[in-house]
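Subject: sequence -> structure tokens, single chain

Hey, anyone have a minute? Need the predicted structure for the following. Not urgent.
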Amino acid sequence: MENPIKGHTVESFNEEMQREHKTVLEMGALVRSQIRAAAKTLQDEDPAAARKVIDDDAKVNELDNEVAAHVEQILARRTPVASDLREVLTVSKIATDLERCGDEAGRLAKLTLHFFEHPDLSPNFQLLKEVSTVASFVEMMLQESLDAFDARDTYGACEVIRKAEELDGEFRSALRRLTTFVLEDARTIGQFVDVVLAVRALERIGGHAKNIGGYVVYLVTGRDVRHETLDAILRDLAK
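Reply:
Had a minute. Here:
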């Protein structure tokens, strides 16, 4: 006869993890919106909208705290092992990376305040084009990493890891273009520094998206791939 207590425990655990899964996806949607909105505030010269992006980070922090508290409770009550434990740890790690992405989006929004609340600092828009390009790319990476998490799609996760390499090349290309622009007009050196810091913040978001991709591989396979090459990960997945 099936143990009714065991069945209840499993069902209850699954319900708890579905709740945390949903919360993480909600966090991800909010962070993606922050990234998109922060980049738009620069294009629109809109400090008011930038302040809203910064304020919205409190919602991300609240969800992060919620996940952390629930994970602590699950670990204390359930003492999960094997794949269940991986699921709990993955949710916790993804929430942490998303919270940090929200912080980076806030830094980007603060650049709008820096530039457009001080008329004498208004930037050359040729410089800001680089920010918009990289912002679109990292938002896409973040979406794909969350889709991979939602579907437990290891190959989708590997595609995000691959795009992190592409992002590194894009960052270097953007830096070269920005440097060339500054050499042609030395008066923009201060703006150059600010914009490079903004692009660097976006690159860090791409790094967090890559981390999430790695967590998905860990969730499905049990292997920690943080320090492995993409080729090595794909070879192991193909076995």
